[in-house]
Amino acid sequence: MRIIKLTQETKSALLDELLKRSPNHYSEYESTVNEILDNVRKQGDRALFEYTMKFDRFALDAGNIRVTPEEIQDAYRKMDPDLVEIIRKSAANIRAFHEKQLRSSWFDAKEDGSFLGMKITPIAKAGVYVPGGKAAYPSSVLMNVVPARVAGVGEILMTTPPGADGQVNPGTLVAADIAGVDAIYKVGGAQAVAAMAFGTESVPRVDKITGPGNIFVALAKKAVYGYVGIDSIAGPSEILVLADETADPRYVAADLLSQAEHDELASAILITTSEELAGAVSDQAECFMEQLSRRDIIRKSLENYGYILLAENMEDAIQAANEIASEHLEILTRDPFEIMPKIRNAGAIFLGEYSSEPLGDYFAGPNHILPTNGTARFFSPLNVDDFLKKTSVISYSREALEKAHKDIETFAESEGLTAHAGSIRVRFEKG
To answer: Is 85 a catalytic residue?
Structure first.
């Protein structure tokens, strides 16, 4: 891995380089995505069936688009029972964590007859997109579906592309069943996003779409935002390790590679105050790489977006980490709990040498669907609130409004909105 001294110039160059991976920089695909969305919106199932044959080589029709209970049971038979039990344990941990995020409607009544509150209501229908093929991740099924189920969403449907044989990844089906999906449809890509956003003869329209996908899925979600809600426009995976001289270089190298193996656009960055650690991590990463099945992807990822940044001091290192705002941030220092309060921007923070990033991916409970490409500066991980709507509730008695009506009228008139003022004033005209 390349070792670079952390300066304002190198930091700015790095930020510019990382931002190039954002879906916002792939406008050349937008016309293709928009054409797919338009065709599905106009032609419904017919377009879904044609695109599934074109992209997935499967003859989809109204009779086989929805996964049957028999297919789900067959998926359980294909799975290692021990892995099924692990998925159940993971789901339980995710559920327990997200249940702590639940909130209740609240109301505040005063003696003057004013009554204010916030009514919290789960959305009616949620749609989850799940990649297929080699990118099938049952863990992401749990992370999308369990918070929606905890929030009380009325109906949760899932779309995922089939193989050429019409089959869906067994792990995806088992995870969906354990998490509580109501219906699963064999359709993928931008066309699946369009189906959930606009509805077809077979696929119901939803209120919100969540879930990861390739650049076509990401751009489709971006395009349908406003017709439906979405979670975020996810970019490639990222890890940033903040370490001092006490960190174990083997742990650091292994953790960096755990994200570099996702794809060639993944980013793996170490910021350290120790030149000795920087060299050791670079050497160890090279040794580990030769043992890994996805070493070609890892090597390309590190060549493109792998960096070891040498900082003058920990304050500079922390400032850089906050500016990069990484999806995953590991703190491997003498006292990580002392550093943690100084971190403002990160999707998820992992403290200490036994809190490796995959712990969050699979098992601990916090959501692994996290803001990427610096959006941790203003976005949060997927959570229960993403599936809840907040509605303000306002009720005033005559007595309460009488105390405030002149102030409201004056405020409205200052903005030139005389009808607003009149709406209040008419209630106190003497008849």
So the answer is: no
